[in-house]
């Protein structure tokens, strides 16, 4: 923000204090009017109270305390979801609100302490009551901001902190604000045309679904309510592309979200529209509505709504576009509204039409949104703005549209009307201070034609009798008509009959019979249909009696007269609900019909039958948005409506039920269009249907019976749901048309299921295609069956699978795999394999594992030769060969061949010979766990194979050896004689025990310094003391001692010394007295050790050998 007057930032010239202070001429100047943002003493300037007097005239204008329409920058924002109107003040650093308005918001939050005070332009300091952190929203922009609370009597201001956060622009606010002026300047306002309104609010008139911010609706389940999932309905093939496109659009807009699993699911119902579009509905009446707790938001009386229109001359009606879809729901409610479709399940993220509590919830939301908008009334989704003058109506309309824009609500331009002086609203005709009942409420009785025979009189008298207790002197008034019903009386319509007829119709329409609508009383809607018309009566139950509120009827069109009796009765219900929509929507009512099957089809606690006709399906989806129960009444007790249906009035108005029928007719027309050609047309099919005996039986049943049926009649054609029923004479031509391009059985069936039906159509298609020679020659290979698994062997190496891999790197590799454990063996061959070489390699493998019971191989000549078969036969091996060209049967070997080749290629740069690489691959494969978590080694050897990786684990400590008293033992440090071996002679030398190794082995040190490992059998205990210590210069100690656990290498001796010598008596060497053996002379310590100089290496012919 930039001020053009003072050049400073943070405000505009309109509120520049510096500029205004220069213009003052009154001596009563107050305080320092600097617009500085000084933070001293925590006091901030706010626009408040100070009157400023202009010198040009004597009129006083409160610059900061202006009246409602003096040009303030006023906007409506949402604070924690509550609408609030505040002034935008760029001169205020912080946003403030008086305490009384803050308490009225009832936000339920506590104030936080604040040490900030505010200074008014009068230099008075205003103490701050505290601050609150709130969510602030404006035009889909939201921030978390601080709001300071000041004492009552101050203005609510939006300061620069919120201005920047909400990205507010004063120019845009100026454009969006309604024109608010004082009463003196009101005559200067120019009224706007409809086009001006649309140009001013273009976003509102966009036909798209918005989303109300900071609000979620929650659906409440009854106690112990369990989820229920109803599978999807079949979508007509002719509509699938459009349905998929609509689902994609809803998903893109975030209205629905695909999910993989859900405990809830309600089927999608697809309804075609006359404009080639579709309407997607959801059948919630079976699985959801009965499990929801009612939302009992108080509904305004229609009389109160109409009374609020008093003194107004101009009226504007606003129709919201897809109203419910603007309302988001919480996550749990989204799950409850889950939709089951042919493409899977979707969560509904917005409030869905068909949810029983949706009307009441939406009514509450709209009441909150439009609260405070002058002369704006709302009855569910019917919004009306009005005013005594054109200017007032325009102003109120702008305020209403601003509020709708703030909450991202959009309207349907085609259904809106603006600045009307006469308008129909809630079933009444509204003009300036004139509210009249709509003549349609009694037109069905007033325009009822006079009876033409005794039956007509009898029906009329039946309706009068139903309400006779409310008609004074009924017997006298009705006598001329009752006399026509006497037995033997000739029917003659006289002037007395005409007078009585007119008088009784007048009585039926006056207030003695009719009662005003009262939403607190129970509502009953009774309907009926006859071959010529449909009718309904809306009634209240007052003191146990039905009192009519309104009557309606209309005659059937030529096409409707061909409907089945079931369809006509259903049409009467839909006609009645649409005509009394304003009285029924959002309320619970009882629907009375004399057709018992409709109580099952339209029952709220039952799913629609899968084979319900397309017309009944459309009717049911429409009724799903109402809260009703269905009651059956016998025809003889339904006389009050029966008369109206048999004496209907004609109407030129296109009612909503007729539009519904057009939607159903549209899909029927699409089916006909697809199968029509020069020879087969709708007229041809209708003509052949009339002459088909089988179809005539179905038609007669439809016209005379009221049973539920998947068939329906339209323009003389029979339909099963949305498919045309083809008479027998036209079936060959239809089949020929389906088979024109030889598309095959499956596609022919799919095409047929979109458009045509007769019993056994699938069977006829299969017979036609299988009899076609061209189709037989072009048939694809049969569908592959699932590979049959081999039976698992009972023991290891019972069945092996063999195959060759290669040539690879100029070698061939014989692969043999155990079927049970997957233990592999590989042998390498330089030459091309033959039966003989293969047998040789197998013999080498079998030398380790033994012969298997079964060998499985392919049909290569190597394995089918007589030599190989003889090899198997002689060793009792059963050979099994796979089918030629079907390697999957030997999948065990084939898979390992692929694995082996892949790993050989991967190890090409690892170095080492071919045999080393193969050995490494086999080794690791045997030790690697397979899909079952067990390695081939564990399965075959019943133990794990040790790898290099095992070296990373610490060695386990050996458990202490148990003491064996039967074995003699020696103690560490004990003197012993140890047996040593020199030149193939045994010698006993003295030493000492250094360490005990288990129970039978010891580590001993000889007196010569050598350390040896000896068994207890090679040791004797002795008391001979050790020899005197040898000097340090002795050769014995010239080198370091070494420990060996093997037989020590002896020093080289002269030929003479290598012979055994007689025993010598000395202190150091002495014979063993217990054994009597002689000792040998000790070799000289300085002699060198003789070792072989020959280089050891493996023979070359074993170079490629692999274990």
From TrEMBL:
Q: Which GO terms describe its biological process?
A: DNA integration
What UniProt keywords apply to this chain's record, in alphabetical order? Endonuclease, Hydrolase, Metal-binding, Multifunctional enzyme, Nuclease, Nucleotidyltransferase, RNA-directed DNA polymerase, Transferase, Zinc, Zinc-finger
Instruction: Report the CDD domains cross-referenced here.
Output: RNase_HI_RT_Ty3, RT_LTR
**Where in this chain does the record put each Integrase catalytic domain?**
789-962
* Domain Reverse transcriptase: start-end pairs: 252-430
Protein's UniProt keywords contain Lipid biosynthesis: no
Q: Gene3D superfamilies from the xrefs?
A: 1.10.340.70, 3.10.20.370, 3.30.70.270, Acid Proteases, HIV Type 1 Reverse Transcriptase, subunit A, domain 1, Ribonuclease H-like superfamily/Ribonuclease H
Q: Where is the composition biased (Low complexity)?
A: 1070-1089
- What is one Pfam family matched by this protein? rve
Q: What GO molecular function terms would the record report?
A: endonuclease activity; nucleic acid binding; RNA-directed DNA polymerase activity; zinc ion binding
Tell me the segments the record calls region Disordered: 1020-1107
CC terms in the record's Gene Ontology section = DNA polymerase complex
Under InterPro entries, the record lists:
DNA/RNA_pol_sf, Integrase_cat-core, Integrase_H2C2, Peptidase_aspartic_dom_sf, Retrovirus_Pol_polyprotein, Rev_trsase/Diguanyl_cyclase, RNaseH-like_sf, RNaseH_sf
Residue ranges annotated for the CCHC-type domain, each copy included: 3-16
Which class of enzymes does this protein belong to?
A: transferase
Bias-annotated ranges (Polar residues)? 1056-1069
Q: Please, which domain of life does this record's source organism belong to?
A: Eukaryota
What's the Enzyme Commission number for this chain?
2.7.7.49
The protein's name: RNA-directed DNA polymerase
What lineage is on file?
Eukaryota, Metazoa, Ecdysozoa, Arthropoda, Hexapoda
């Amino acid at each position: 923000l930039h001020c053009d007057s003072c050049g400073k930032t943070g405000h505009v010239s309109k509120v520049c204090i510096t500029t205004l202070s220069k213009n003052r001429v009154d001596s009563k100047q107050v305080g320092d009017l600097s617009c500085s943002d000084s933070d001293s003493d925590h006091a901030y300037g706010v626009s408040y109270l100070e009157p400023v007097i202009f010198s040009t005239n004597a009129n006083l204008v409160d610059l900061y305390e202006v009246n409602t329409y003096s040009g303030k920058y006023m906007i409506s924002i949402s604070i924690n979801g509550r609408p609030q109107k505040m002034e935008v003040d760029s001169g205020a650093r912080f946003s403030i609100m008086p305490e009384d308005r803050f308490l009225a918001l009832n936000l339920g939050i506590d104030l936080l302490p604040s040490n900030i005070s505010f200074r008014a332009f009068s230099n008075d300091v205003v103490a701050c009551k505290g601050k609150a952190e709130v969510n602030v929203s404006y035009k889909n922009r939201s921030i978390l901001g601080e709001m300071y609370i000041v004492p009552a009597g101050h203005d609510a201001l939006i300061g620069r902190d919120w201005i920047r956060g909400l990205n507010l622009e004063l120019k845009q606010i100026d454009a969006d604000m309604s024109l608010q002026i004082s009463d003196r300047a009101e005559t200067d306002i120019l009224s706007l045309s409809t086009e001006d309104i649309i140009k001013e609010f273009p976003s509102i008139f966009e036909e798209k679904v918005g989303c109300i911010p900071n609000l979620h609706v929650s659906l409440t389940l009854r106690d112990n309510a369990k989820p229920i999932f109803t599978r999807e309905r079949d979508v007509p093939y002719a509509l699938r592309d459009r349905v998929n496109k609509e689902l994609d659009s809803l998903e893109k807009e975030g209205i629905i979200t695909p999910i993989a699993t859900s405990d809830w699911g309600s089927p999608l119902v697809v309804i075609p529209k006359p404009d080639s579009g579709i309407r997607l509905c959801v059948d919630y009446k079976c699985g959801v509505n009965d499990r929801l707790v009612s939302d009992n938001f108080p509904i305004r009386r229609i009389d109160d709504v109409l009374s609020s229109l008093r003194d107004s001359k101009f009226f504007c009606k606003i129709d919201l576009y897809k109203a419910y879809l603007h309302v988001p729901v919480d996550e749990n409610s989204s799950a409850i509204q889950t939709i089951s479709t042919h493409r899977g399940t979707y969560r509904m993220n917005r409030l869905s039409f068909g949810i029983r509590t949706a009307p009441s919830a939406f009514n509450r939301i709209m009441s909150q949104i439009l609260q405070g908008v002058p002369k704006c009334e709302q009855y569910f989704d019917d919004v009306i703005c009005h005013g005594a003058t054109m200017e007032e109506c325009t102003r109120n309309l702008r305020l209403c549209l601003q509020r709708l824009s703030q909450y991202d609500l959009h309207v349907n331009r085609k259904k809106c009307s603006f600045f009307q002086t006469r308008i129909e609203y809630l079933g009444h005709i509204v003009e300036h201070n004139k509210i009249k009942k709509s003549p349609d409420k009694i037109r069905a009785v007033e325009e009822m034609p006079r009876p033409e025979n005794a039956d007509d009189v009898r029906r009329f008298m039946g309706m009068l009798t139903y309400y006779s207790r409310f008609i004074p002197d009924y017997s006298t008034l009705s006598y001329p008509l009752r006399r026509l019903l006497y037995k033997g009386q000739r029917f003659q319509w006289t002037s007395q009959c005409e007078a009585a007829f007119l008088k009784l119709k007048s009585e039926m329409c006056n207030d003695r019979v009719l009662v005003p609508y009262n939403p607190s009383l129970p509502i009953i809607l009774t309907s009926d249909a006859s071959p010529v018309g449909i009718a309904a009566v809306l009634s209240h139950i007052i003191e146990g009696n039905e009192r009519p509120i309104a009557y309606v009827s209309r005659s059937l069109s030529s096409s409707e007269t061909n409907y089945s009796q079931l369809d006509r009765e259903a049409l009467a219900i839909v006609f009645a609900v649409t005509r009394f929509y304003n009285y029924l929507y959002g309320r619970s009512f009882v629907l009375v019909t004399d057709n018992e099957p409709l109580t099952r089809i339209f029952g709220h606690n039952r799913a629609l039958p899968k084979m319900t006709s397309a017309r009944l399906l459309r009717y049911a989806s429409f009724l799903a948005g109402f809260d009703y129960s269905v009651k059956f009444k016998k025809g003889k007790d339904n006389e009050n409506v029966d008369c109206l249906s048999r004496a209907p009035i004609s109407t030129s108005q296109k009612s909503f039920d007729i539009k519904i029928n057009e939607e159903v007719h549209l899909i029927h027309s699409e089916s006909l269009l697809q199968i029509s050609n020069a020879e087969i047309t709708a007229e041809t099919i209708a003509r052949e249907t009339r002459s088909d005996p089988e179809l005539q039986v179905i038609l007669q049943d439809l016209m005379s019976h009221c049973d539920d049926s998947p068939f329906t009649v339209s323009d003389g054609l029979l339909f099963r749901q949305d498919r045309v029923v083809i008479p027998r004479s036209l079936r060959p031509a239809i089949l020929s048309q389906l088979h024109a391009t030889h598309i095959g059985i499956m596609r022919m069936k799919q095409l047929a299921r979109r458009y045509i039906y007769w019993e056994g159509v699938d069977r006829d298609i299969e017979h036609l295609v299988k009899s076609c020679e061209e189709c037989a020659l072009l048939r694809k290979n049969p569908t592959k069956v699932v590979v049959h698994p081999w039976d698992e062997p009972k023991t290891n190496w019972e069945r092996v699978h063999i195959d060759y891999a290669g040539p690879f790197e100029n070698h061939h590799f014989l692969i043999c795999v155990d079927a049970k454990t997957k233990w592999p063996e590989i042998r390498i061959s330089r030459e091309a394999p033959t039966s003989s070489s293969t047998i040789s390699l197998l013999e080498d493998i079998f030398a380790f594992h033994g012969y298997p019971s079964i060998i499985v191989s392919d049909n290569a000549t190597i394995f089918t030769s007589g030599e190989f078969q003889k090899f198997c036969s002689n060793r009792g091996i059963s050979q099994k060969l796979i089918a030629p060209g079907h390697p999957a049967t030997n999948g065990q070997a084939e898979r390992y061949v692929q694995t082996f080749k892949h790993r050989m290629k991967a190890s090409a740069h690892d170095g080492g010979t071919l045999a080393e690489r193969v050995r490494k691959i086999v080794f690791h494969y045997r030790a690697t766990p397979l899909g079952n978590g067990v390695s081939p080694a564990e399965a075959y050897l019943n133990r794990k194979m040790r790898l290099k990786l095992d070296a990373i684990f610490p060695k386990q400590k050996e458990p202490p050896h148990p003491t064996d008293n039967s074995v003699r033992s020696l103690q560490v440090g004990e003197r012993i004689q140890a047996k040593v071996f020199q030149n193939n002679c045994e010698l006993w030398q003295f030493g000492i025990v250094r360490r005990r190794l288990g129970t039978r082995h010891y580590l001993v040190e000889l007196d010569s310094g050598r350390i040896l490992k000896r068994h207890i059998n090679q040791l004797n205990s002795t008391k001979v003391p050790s020899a005197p210590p040898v000097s340090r210069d002795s050769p014995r100690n010239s080198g370091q001692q070494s420990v060996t656990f093997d037989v020590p290498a002896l020093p080289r001796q002269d030929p003479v010394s290598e012979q055994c010598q007689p025993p010598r008596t000395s202190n150091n060497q002495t014979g063993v007295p217990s054994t009597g053996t002689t000792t040998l002379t000790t070799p000289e310590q300085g002699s060198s050790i003789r070792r072989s100089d020959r280089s050891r290496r493996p023979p070359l012919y074993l170079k490629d050998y692999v274990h």
